[in-house]
Amino acid sequence: MAGSGSWKLDGRVAVVTGAARGLGAGLARRLSDRGMSVVLLGREASTLESVAETLHTPTHVVEVDVTDDVAMGFAAENVQRRLGAPSVVIANAGVAEGGPFETSDPRTWRRVVEVNLVGSAVTARSFLPGLRATRGYFLQVASTAAFGSAPMMSAYCASKAGAEAFARSLRAEVAHLGVGVG
């Protein structure tokens, strides 16, 4: 069913990280409009709840840091118990900080890489059992920054290039299980 292009989404479960605003909130709305139950993951519960109020299908909000392996594992178990296995997981959580690399705060630089790259891997690891069960789809949100470089954006460009490479590797690993990756 993965990659068939005629996937029936009505009644299925979607998980969206970084769903509090922007692309994540927009994707959640779009999936809800297509009939999917939507799980909103992020670090701002009140903002996630505001997005949930705009959706037309069953929703579930989980306040979680995508870089926390244990918390994300609990989130995946919680989703499975409440709504069932996800058919779509969108690793959208991301942060961007800019400035000269030499004088950048090492903690901020590292946090960008952890959220954008490591957080995507943690999301995939946490939800792959459910995606295997539904022969679902994992969508890695990257950026054109994955394919080029931008001065003053070293952490962002590196993390998005890593996220793109991660998704390509994961695609090859799970294709035989019926899980699509894009």
Structural domains: how many: 1
**What would CATH call the class?**
Alpha Beta
Task: Choose one word for the global shape.
Answer: globular
The stretches of 5 or more residues where confidence is low (pLDDT under 50) are: none
**Main sheet record:** 6 strands, parallel
Per DSSP, what share of the residues sits in E-state strands of 2 or more residues? 5-15%
- The rounded distance between the terminal residues' Cα atoms is 14 Å
| CATH fold category name | Rossmann fold
Fourth-level CATH superfamily: NAD(P)-binding Rossmann-like Domain
CATH architecture: 3-Layer(aba) Sandwich
Order of helices and strands: EHEHEHEHEHE
The class by helix and strand makeup works out as alpha/beta
Number of helical segments with 4 or more residues: 5
Q: In order across it, which strands form the biggest sheet?
A: 3-2-1-4-5-6
Level of helix content? 40-55%
Q: What is the mean predicted local confidence, pLDDT?
A: 93
Using the CA coordinates, give the radius of gyration. Answer: 16 Å
Number of strands: 6
